[in-house]
Design a protein that fits this description.
Elements: H1 19-32, H2 34-61, H3 67-71, H4 77-104, H5 106-113, H6 117-151, H7 165-190, H8 193-211, H9 216-225, H10 227-232, H11 246-270
Helix pairs in contact: 1-6, 2-4, 2-6, 4-6, 4-7, 4-8, 6-7, 7-8, 7-11
C-alpha cells in the first residue's frame, strides 16, 4: 500500500498537529491509495457473487431436498455463507493500511509529524472503521436483496421485516468493520503484509474449520466462541443450538478485537518505527 501524501502533520510542525488534521490526513491517504478501492471491490464481488451463486444452487436443488434440509435455510443463509468466504478480504484491507506504510518507510515520516502514536493509530482506526462500515453495509444489503430475488422463484424469499432479518443484514457491516479493525491490530503487531494476512486468515478462516472437528461437548462449546463463529452469529436471524446469541457473539468478537488493538497500541508505542 503506497500513499500519495507526504506527511501527516501540518505546516506548523509536530506540536501544531491536531486530531482533526490527523483524521483528515488519514482520510486522504485511504481514499487516494489504489489498493483501498481494489480490495473493497474484490471483497464486494466475492461476497455478493457467492450470495447469488449459493441462492442459485439452492433453488436448483430445492425440489430434491428433504423437508429437514429445507427447514435449515433462512433468508440470510446465502449471505452467511458468502461472508464466511469473503470476510478475509476486508481483513486484508485492515492489514494494508498499516503494513503498507512500514513497507514504504512512510511510517517514519508519519510519526515524525504525529509523535503521539496512540493519536495516530486512533485516527487510522476511525477512518478505516468508517470506510469499511459503509462499504460493508452496502455489500450486506446488496447480497441480501439479490439473493432474495432468486429465492423468490421457490417462494423462499424473506423481507427485512421478518424477525431478526434487518438486524442480521445490518450486522454484516458491523462484522466486517470489526474484522478490518482486528486486522489493523494484527498488522501493527506483525508489521509485515504477508505475515499479517496469514495470521488473519488462520484466525478467521482456519480456526472456524478446525473448530467444527473438535470432539465432545467441550468441543462444541469452544467452537461457539472461536472468532469467526462468534462474530458470524450476528448474520443469523435466530440463534441455533450450535451458535451464540447474535448480539452475544458480536460482543465476544468485539472483545477479541479490542484485545488485539490494545496489544497493538502497547507495541506501537514501545518499538522503533
Amino acid at each position: 500500500m503506497t500513499a500519495s501524501t507526504t506527511a501527516t502533520g501540518t505546516a506548523g510542525g509536530p506540536g501544531a498537529t491536531t486530531f482533526g488534521s490527523v483524521l483528515a490526513s488519514e482520510w486522504t491517504k485511504i481514499r487516494t491509495v489504489k489498493s483501498t478501492f481494489w480490495t473493497l471491490l474484490a471483497g464486494a464481488v466475492v461476497v455478493i457473487g457467492l450470495s447469488v451463486l449459493w441462492a442459485l444452487a439452492f433453488t436448483a436443488s430445492y425440489d430434491q431436498m428433504t423437508p429437514e434440509d429445507r427447514a435449515t435455510v433462512a433468508p440470510t443463509s446465502p449471505m452467511q455463507i458468502a461472508f464466511y468466504f469473503g470476510m478475509v478480504i476486508f481483513g486484508v484491507l485492515g492489514v494494508l493500511v498499516i503494513t503498507g506504510e512500514y513497507t514504504t518507510g512512510m511510517i517514519r515520516t508519519a510519526l515524525t509529524a504525529v509523535p503521539r502514536r496512540p493519536q495516530y493509530l486512533a485516527a487510522k482506526a476511525l477512518v478505516l472503521a468508517a470506510v469499511v462500515l459503509v462499504a460493508g453495509e452496502v455489500v450486506s444489503f446488496l447480497s441480501f436483496f439479490l439473493s432474495q430475488l432468486l429465492l423468490s422463484s421457490k417462494d423462499l424469499d424473506g423481507s427485512l421485516g421478518d424477525p431478526g432479518v434487518l438486524r442480521a443484514v445490518m450486522g454484516g457491516g458491523l462484522y466486517l468493520m470489526l474484522i478490518a479493525l482486528m486486522a489493523l491490530g494484527v498488522g501493527v503487531i506483525v508489521r509485515h503484509t504477508a505475515g499479517s494476512v496469514v495470521v488473519v486468515f488462520v484466525v478467521l478462516f482456519v480456526l472456524g474449520i478446525v473448530g467444527g472437528f473438535l470432539p465432545g461437548e467441550w468441543g462444541a462449546t469452544l467452537n461457539k466462541y472461536l472468532p469467526s463463529n462468534a462474530g458470524g452469529a450476528i448474520l443469523a436471524p435466530t440463534q441455533t443450538g450450535t451458535t451464540l446469541a447474535p448480539w452475544t457473539g458480536l460482543a465476544y468478537f468485539t472483545l477479541y478485537t479490542l484485545v488485539v488493538l490494545a496489544v497493538a497500541v502497547v507495541l506501537f508505542e514501545s518499538r522503533d518505527a
